[in-house]
Specification:
215 residues; alpha/beta
Length: 215
């Protein structure tokens, strides 16, 4: 089985997240995409993030009805900050050798991979799928991989990926660019502007029902 992993605060989830997941699901012929809301993101101010419960509920509503999408509360159950290395280790213990993982992240996040906990070990536990982001230099990807991660990666031009002797790879992919961000959505709500059509209707209705993001 081949599972894609898409983590994030999902504060809130929107069509940009969902479309990215759908395209990677098809491109890499995955069996499932697991959305993993972060409980205590280590690189963000937790005081500015609404409680995990609401973010988990919105992510569940957004993915409902899609048989190859699922949502996990793993990072809420694990103690301490939500480090990706701990999440991957837990998933390996849970699924064993039955599942191969594909961890998705944006190019902006990958360029800062050196700030992640035990970042080199991450690439011995999962494949990584780096999604292109406008305004961020793709030219630095090779430098980070060969100088910060490992010189053992070999580039495969046919599949646009770097392959490691462990058989895990770093895939470079592009997806449809949808200019939506969770930050903009929160700003719209605060200013009393419409957020309709930026997310599934169920998420839109949940935000208004619960009075989220109003200051």
């Amino acid at each position: 089985m081949r599972f894609g992993l898409l983590g994030g605060t999902f504060n809130p989830i929107h069509f940009g997240h969902l479309r990215l997941a759908e395209e990677i699901y098809q491109n890499l012929k995955l069996d499932r995409i697991i959305f993993i809301p972060s409980a205590i993101p280590p690189h963000k101010d937790i005081k500015k993030i609404i409680p995990f419960f609401h973010r988990f509920q919105m992510t569940s509503l957004a993915t409902r009805g899609c048989p190859h999408f699922s949502v996990s509360d793993i990072e809420e159950r694990l103690p301490g900050k939500s480090y990706s290395i701990e999440t991957l280790k837990y998933l390996h213990k849970t699924y064993g050798e039955k599942v191969v993982f594909y961890f998705m992240l944006g190019l902006d996040e990958f360029l800062n991979i050196g700030t992640w906990k035990d970042y080199r070990e991450l690439f011995t536990l999962s494949n990584f799928v780096v999604i292109d982001r406008p305004g961020y230099p793709k030219s630095k990807v090779n430098e980070i991989i060969t100088q910060e991660l490992s010189k053992d990666f070999v580039f495969d031009a046919r599949d646009n990926r770097f392959i490691h002797p462990s058989n895990y790879s770093i895939y470079l992919r592009q997806t449809t660019l949808i200019d939506i961000s969770s930050t903009k959505i929160r700003e719209y709500v605060t200013k009393g502007q419409s957020i309709r059509f930026l997310m599934p209707d169920a998420v839109y209705e949940y935000i208004h029902k619960e009075g989220l993001y109003r200051e």
